[in-house]
């Protein structure tokens, strides 16, 4: 597996996201310990592991919600270790959360429009958008990309759970992101909704890389080209999806001894 890890992470130059020796302490508790990961531009990677493995803490360090206690984070070559979250967003980093963060009283279209407006230069303008407004066009494009055109005028509170997860992806796509962190997008989805999610993720523009945290390996391994396994806040394994899926240690530790 050493050669696999090397070819997946030996591309520091020109990397989209590069973590070196990232550690996060909460008092005496080490939630992350010496995590080193390199992700290429356009690469799609899964970060897998059981509850408590450190996956969400890893995302929080990358986005700046909980900066690392030590180590460095570089985004497209720029050191963002000490940047606040909004500066990372300005540079093209996006994230979804385990619990959907939406405006339930507004329509699907309004939610997406506000996301597009929020990352635009004219976000503080009081002018009402017209039919030919560029942000309205971007909104319609994103709504279509996540398969919600049929419900674009519906209030978010009336959507099915799976549709709300799809809407969150549209919000993450606002403003031409360069890299997205997806935090358990398949949580609570039905088999049909999971298939829809897979189709949406695999249809994203090829230049947009992402990391997905996901407990459903049947989803995760179908939408990525590389996998990082975490255990107790450390990197446990790295490899291609087929290698991780067939690895005996992974099966024993995470899958109960077997996985079809």
TrEMBL record:
Pfam families: ABC_tran. It is an enzyme of class 3 (hydrolase). Its EC number is 3.6.3.-. Coiled coil: none annotated. GO terms for molecular function: ATP binding; ATP hydrolysis activity; L-isoleucine transmembrane transporter activity; L-phenylalanine transmembrane transporter activity; L-valine transmembrane transporter activity. InterPro entries: AAA+_ATPase (IPR003593), ABC_AA/LPS_Transport (IPR051120), ABC_transporter-like_ATP-bd (IPR003439), P-loop_NTPase (IPR027417). Residues 17-257 form the ABC transporter domain. Signal peptide: none annotated. GO terms for cellular component: plasma membrane. GO terms for biological process: D-alanine transmembrane transport; L-alanine transport; L-isoleucine import across plasma membrane; L-valine import across plasma membrane. This is Lipopolysaccharide export system ATP-binding protein LptB. It comes from Bradyrhizobium ivorense. The lineage of its organism: Bacteria, Pseudomonadati, Pseudomonadota, Alphaproteobacteria, Hyphomicrobiales.
